[in-house]
């Protein structure tokens, strides 16, 4: 069920950014998709940097978890950029693959940190 609403929300976003064909609207949509992609993509690294300077294990987990959420958001913007034509396949395919890889690594880091924290480590 959650996947259904995720897909519907994605399709809604795609419909919105491709709603009109006039140059002003296309440029505005392109800028917004790219702006959001830059914001989410750069936030991943900044939150991981903050995590590495965490003052405690819960602080580390919180910062790394934010990085995990941001990589998921970046993947959304990459997908939307590709589907709307804002990003070319040459741009979106390697970006999507790297984002997926980084996401898996961050997920593992968060999962392991939570497990060791819950065991008192």
Could you please describe the fold and organization of this structure?
The chain is an all-alpha fold and 121 residues long. It has one domain: Up-down Bundle (de novo design (two linked rop proteins)), CATH 1.20.1440. The chain contains four helices and no strands. Helix 1 crosses helix 3 (57-84), helix 2 (23-52) runs antiparallel to helix 3 (57-84) and helix 3 (57-84) runs antiparallel to helix 4. The radius of gyration is 17 Å and the shape is elongated. The mean pLDDT is 96.
Which spans of ≥5 residues are poorly predicted at pLDDT below 50? none
Query: Could you say which structural class the secondary elements and strand pairing correspond to?
Result: mainly alpha
* Element string (H = helix, E = strand): HHHH
CATH architecture: Up-down Bundle
**What is the end-to-end distance?**
36 Å
Tell me roughly what share of residues is in helical segments: over 70%
| The top level CATH class name | Mainly Alpha
Q: Quick one: biggest sheet? A: none
What does the average pLDDT come to? Answer: 96
Which overall shape is indicated by the principal axes computed on the Cα atoms? Answer: elongated
* Total strands: 0
Instruction: Report the sheet-strand fraction.
Output: under 5%
Tell me the CATH topology: de novo design (two linked rop proteins)
Number of domains: 1
């Amino acid at each position: 069920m959650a996947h259904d609403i995720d897909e519907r929300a994605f399709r809604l976003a795609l419909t919105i950014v491709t709603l009109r064909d006039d140059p002003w609207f296309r440029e505005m949509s392109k800028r917004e998709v790219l702006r959001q992609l830059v914001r989410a993509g750069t936030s991943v690294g900044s939150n991981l940097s903050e995590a590495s300077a965490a003052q405690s294990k819960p602080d580390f987990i919180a910062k790394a978890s934010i990085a995990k959420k941001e990589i998921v958001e970046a993947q959304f913007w990459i997908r939307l950029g590709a589907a709307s034509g804002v990003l070319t396949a040459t741009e979106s395919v390697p970006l999507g693959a790297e984002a997926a890889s980084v996401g898996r690594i961050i997920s593992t880091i968060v999962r392991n940190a939570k497990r060791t924290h819950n065991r008192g480590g």
